[in-house]
Amino acid sequence: MLIKDINIPVNTTEFNLNDINNVKYRLNEQSHLIMALKESADRELLQRKEFEEKLAQERDKSFELQEQTEELELRLMQSQNLVASLSQTIEKLTGRGKRKTCATSDTPIQCNRDSEIATSEKGLNTNSWWMEDVLQNSDLKRKTNELAAALRKAEIEKFELTQKYMTILAERRNANLDFTNSKTLLEENYAQAKRQIEVLQREALENASRWSDERADFEKRICGRMIKEEELNRITQQLQQENSDLQKEIEELNLRRKKDAEALNANKQIKRLNNRLDEADARYKNLQEVFEAYKQHTNELLQAEKKLNKKLRQHFK
């Protein structure tokens, strides 16, 4: 709240009014400074809220990266399990094919011409079994090739997932590092701004307290001075009235003395009137001295007030 009015009578000189306006201006400047400090504190609070929102966003982003990492780890584990399963299946199929091939190669074939005719039926049965075994080996080889292709595909997918996983881990490390650096920088800036605000607020409170005390003292002095000036004005008016009454009385005495002198023409009467006139003159001189003393006292008060105003202006600067 700005300082607009100070309840001080306005029947002062122009110089004193300028001093009072200067004091009001300085008080208004201090009020503006306090308002600026409040606005600065509000801006710092807003920056703190923005920092907290950014911190929450970074946490959400880190949480999303964590979920993606866990998902990739799960897929990588599944891919590794699939590769292991395919490897075991291929090993089993390869072992089975080798055993059948060995059994086929170890089968004794009778090539004796003397027994060809006698064993023709047995040879036909052997050829049928051999053809069936060849077909089974062909199916086994085809399945083996398919499983090998699936294994290669799984290994490629595993490699790609591993690369993606490493990339995400690197991005996550970089993001965590950037987040940590940003958080540290923002915390340092916030702490520094908070310290500055506390210092400014403390200075503002001290200045406000000092200005309040000085203003109260200034108003007290002004009011005391105005009371004294009112008393001096009242006494001055009273003296002026008494002086006017004495002037009238002197005029009346002079007129009466003149009339008495003309009427009586007596030395005693003239002497008495002269004595009264001398008494009136002495009383007038006494009142004139009192008036001059009050006038000098008023001038001294004005000089003291000027010095006080000068000190106040120097202090407010």
Task: Explain what you see.
It is a single chain. The protein has 317 residues and is mainly alpha-helical. It is built from three helices and no strands. Keywords: Coiled coil.
Question: What would a concise description of this structure say?
Answer:
The chain is mostly helical and 317 residues long. The protein is built from three helices and no strands.
* Number of E-type strands: 0
Number of domains as seen in the coordinates = 1
Radius of gyration: 60 Å
The best one-word shape is: rod-shaped
Q: What is the ordering of alpha helices and beta strands?
A: HHH
Largest sheet: none
Q: What is the number of helical segments per DSSP (H or I, 4+ residues)?
A: 3
The computed structural class is: mainly alpha
In quaternary terms, these chains amount to: single chain
Summary tags:
coiled coil; single chain; disordered N terminus; 3 helices; 0% strand; 317 residues
SSE order and pairing:
Layout lengths: L13 H92 L14 H144 L3 H50 L1
Helix pairs in contact: 1-2, 1-3, 2-3
